[in-house]
Amino acid sequence: MFMTHGTNPAADPRPPGDVIVGVDGSRASDSAVRWAARTAAERGRLLRILHGLGLTTAGLLLGSDRLGAADALDKLRRKADECVAGAVALARETAPELDIDTEVSDLGPARLLIEQSRSAHLVVLGVSGVGGALTRLGSTLTAVVAHGHGAIVVVRGADEQDPDLSARPVVVGVDGNPAGQAATRVAFAEADALGVPLVAVHTWSDLPVGGLPGAAPELDPMTEAEAQRTLQEQLARCQEQYPDVVIVRKVYLSGPRDRLIGWSRSAQLLVVGSRGRGGFRGLLLGSTSQTLVQQSHCPVMVVHQR
């Protein structure tokens, strides 16, 4: 498989670590494994396939029957080993020359992935379906996206058979807060590594489309100039570091969620910060990021400020 490290890998703010994927044997997990394997192979990175047993929870459920508990735990471990072996086979099918490491941990899957995210280049999980409350995505995914470190990728909506997928752009939501600035840096690094354009989307207001009473549906010239200036200020430093990345700037009056969901239909990756510019300090995952993880039509990378 052709390896690409981009034109300026030293500018990538993420650790030069491994690509980590959490697996549970589901179809969504398989999609995450394929995405992670391709990415690790293209970047020349080790792929680490992790499965968390959650033995503390299992022990509570099994109770005091030691003999029965031992038998049940043995079955649990065998099933975990089978799950990881299947993921390894799938990764090898996707990228035959890929270096792979595996771990079956006694920790719960969320805690395992959150801890490993501290030094990872990427952490990848899968989710199936579109829409629904965030809690329906699963407690592991919800916890890792909210509490993980660095870049967390939720694989969803990608048509792996689409011959034009590799030419689609990376799309980033730009809002100017620290987490958003980290997302912009990572988005440039992704576009550079993939050799595709970067679409930078900025909205003047966080209100939904039509949420500004009495306002025109589009930006007036003065407001558009202000929005363009804000966007340019946020992109300037990254442009210097990645001069070969082609940038498409898009500014809108409002509706960041709707705008980004719309752009996800034609993107190969959507990058957002973990918290929006209007987020509360204690809120680890902003409402826009939550919505995109639920409803995006392509993989979503949620970037936490380190």
From TrEMBL:
Pfam families: Usp
UniProt keyword list: ATP-binding, Nucleotide-binding
Domain of life: Bacteria
SUPFAM superfamilies the record matches: Adenine nucleotide alpha hydrolases-like
Entry's Gene Ontology molecular function annotations: ATP binding
InterPro entries: Rossmann-like_a/b/a_fold, Universal_stress_UspA, UspA
UspA domain segment(s): 19-156, 168-304
PANTHER family from the UniProt entry: STRESS RESPONSE PROTEIN NHAX, UNIVERSAL STRESS PROTEIN RV2623
Family label: Belongs to the universal stress protein A family.
Protein name: Universal stress protein
